[in-house]
């Protein structure tokens, strides 16, 4: 084992917060294996502590402020 993490797949609408069940925008991959998913609210509450304990944080909460057409070709 090399210890390198595989690139995380993007979060989808099917990924749900482990605290409240809302759509997840933050994934914390734990150093011992496994992952936790959080909505933006709960992610902000827990990300710093998890990062300090060695978790890799994938934060996609910026998607919340994007318009639905921002990823289309200027339409």
Walk me through the structure.
- By secondary structure, the protein is α+β, with helices and mostly antiparallel strands.
- The protein has a domain at 26-63.
- Helix content is 17%, strand content 16%.
- A 3-stranded antiparallel sheet has the order 2-1-3.
- The longest helix has 13 residues, at 40-52.
- The model has no long low-confidence stretch (mean pLDDT 87).
Task: Give the topology, please.
Blueprint: E1 26-29, E2 35-38, H1 40-52, E3 56-59
Short summary:
It comes from Sphaerimonospora cavernae. The chain has 75 residues and is α+β, with helices and mostly antiparallel strands.
Descriptors:
alpha+beta; globular; DUF7455; DUF7455 domain-containing protein; 75 residues; 3 strands
How is the main sheet built? 3 strands, antiparallel
Beta-strand segment tally? 3
Strand order of the largest sheet: 2-1-3
- Radius of gyration, Cα only, in angstroms? 14 Å
Shape: globular
Order of secondary-structure elements = EEHE
Helix content: 10-25%
Average pLDDT reading: 87
Distance between the termini: 46 Å
Tally of separate helices: 1
> Structural class of the helices, strands and pairings?
alpha+beta
- Unreliable residue runs: none
Give the percentage of residues in beta strands: 15-25%
């Amino acid at each position: 084992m090399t210890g390198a993490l595989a690139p995380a797949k993007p979060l989808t609408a099917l990924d749900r917060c482990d605290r409240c069940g809302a759509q997840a925008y933050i994934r914390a991959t734990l150093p011992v294996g496994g992952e936790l998913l959080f909505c933006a609210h709960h992610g902000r509450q827990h990300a710093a502590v998890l990062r300090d304990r060695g978790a890799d944080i994938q934060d996609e909460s910026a998607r919340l402020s994007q318009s639905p057409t921002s990823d289309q070709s200027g339409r």
